[in-house]
Amino acid sequence: MLSKAYQRRGYAYEHLEKFSEAKQDFLRVKELQPNSSEATKALARLNKAMQEDNSRVDLGDVELKVNKIKEAGNALFGQQKYKEAIEKFSEGVEMFKKE
After folding, report:
1. Which terminus of the chain has fewer CB atoms gathered within 10 Å of its CB, N or C?
2. What's the rounded Cα separation, in Å, for the pair 88 and 86?
């Protein structure tokens, strides 16, 4: 009975893409029912989803940072501080390449 509650909550967390919470619930199912094939399959799925989730890049954050750097570079350019502007623009380019 208790393992079923953990299992269902784990599925709910998984559908909400709260993979860490889902994994904890399915690990608890495995403790309560070591032979649970559903929990084994769910854990494999969750491990894969967590790896994929960790490899994603949120371009929104990167674009915000790069935009701020670009604005600073534009301001320097407008002040005819070309060397400093180049350094600032280069910083933005490097940041985008890393992400």
Report:
1. N
2. 5
